[in-house]
Amino acid sequence: MAVDHPLARLIAAFADGDFLAADGGWQRVEPWRPQLEAVVAFTGRAVFAITPDIADEHLVALGADGFGGAHDPRLVTALAGPDAWIDSLDALLVGRGTGAPGVRPRLVARPDLSDHPRARLAAELRDDVEVLGRPGDPGSTVATLARGVGGLRELSFEVDPAHRGGSGAALVGDALSTVPDDELVVAAVAPGNAASLRAVLSAGFTPLGSLQLFRRDAQSRSGTE
C-alpha cells in the first residue's frame, strides 16, 4: 500500500528507529481523511493533523507541546467544540505484514460480519475496509484491515466472547498473514483494554506513540482563529 501522507512518512521513519529530536516540539499536517482530525504524540514530539483554519497561535495559547500538552483534555475539547465526537485516547502501535506469495492467508473475506460493531466503526473512520474472519467460523470473531491513520494499513479486531482468554494474539497474527510481508500496519488500542493490548504486543506490534481522533462541529470550525 503506497502512501504519501506526511504522518505516514513520520510513522514509517519512527518504526525504523529514525526518530526526531525529543525536544518538546510540535508540527501540523493536513488531515488524512475529510472531517476527521487527530492529535498524535510521540516521545517528546507531537503532530496535529488538523485543518488550516486553526491558527498556530491558537494552539500555542492552548498549551500545545510535545511533552504531554498535546493530549491535555482541555486542548482537544477546545479544538473540537462542544458538540464534537472525540474518540478515546489510544496507544498507537506498529507491526508488519507476514504474508508471502503462494501462501494462503489464514483469514478470508467475511462480508457476513460487515454489520459487526467493530466493522461498522472501521467503516466510519477508515477507507477501503476489509472485513475478515476464519472460514466457516459461526461465531463473531472479526478482524478489519483498512486505510487508516495517515493512510497506512490499520488493523482492528475483536474475539467472540465465547473464545476469549488468550486467542487474540493468534487472531492478530492471522490478520497479519493477509498483508504483504514487511508492509507497515498500525493499530490503535485503548490502554485500558489490556486484553487487546496484550494481544497486539504478543503478535509483535511495538508501541510508537498515542492517538486521539475527533470530528469537530460546524460552530467550532468557524470560531477557532
Automatic annotation (TrEMBL):
Molecular function in Gene Ontology: transferase activity
Official protein name in the record: N-acetyltransferase
Keyword line: Transferase
